[in-house]
Design brief:
single chain, 119 residues, alpha+beta, Trna Endonuclease, Chain: A, domain 1, 5-stranded mixed beta sheet, two-stranded antiparallel sheet, 20% helix, 27% strand
């Protein structure tokens, strides 16, 4: 299995520092999500494989919740919004996955309401 190549400068340093990479931003969002869920009474089980339709499984009051954590973009000064790439996939819809949005500017999390278009 091949891994993605990291873009390097001529001197061998990374073009994008690890701390600014999309992967690191996603990792940060997931760690905040775990502690936020703990604070809200959930037991949390992260996806150890870092792939698949969910980032973590949460358990509270006898209910299991499948969660995908998404980093929110600041659409306006007051309301973070999801990009179109942050919507649930059909697989996630079939599994009942819920999205938990992370706003990196404020380090706040919120459940994302799922509005499905009816054709």
């Amino acid at each position: 299995m091949c891994s993605k190549r990291v873009a390097l400068n001529n001197d061998g340093t990374r073009k994008i520092p690890i701390s600014e990479s999309a992967q690191r931003k996603g990792d940060l969002a997931e760690y905040y999500a775990v502690t936020w869920l703990w604070d809200n009474g959930y037991e949390v089980f992260p996806n150890a494989g870092s792939s698949g339709p969910i980032d973590m499984v949460a358990f509270k009051d006898g209910k299991i919740t499948l969660i995908d954590v998404k980093t929110l973009c600041l659409d306006s000064p007051k309301r973070p919004a999801m990009s179109t790439s942050s919507r649930r996939t059909q697989e996630q819809k079939n599994l009942g996955v819920v999205l938990l949005g992370f706003a990196p500017e404020t380090r706040k999390l919120r459940w994302i309401n799922h509005y499905e278009k009816h054709v």
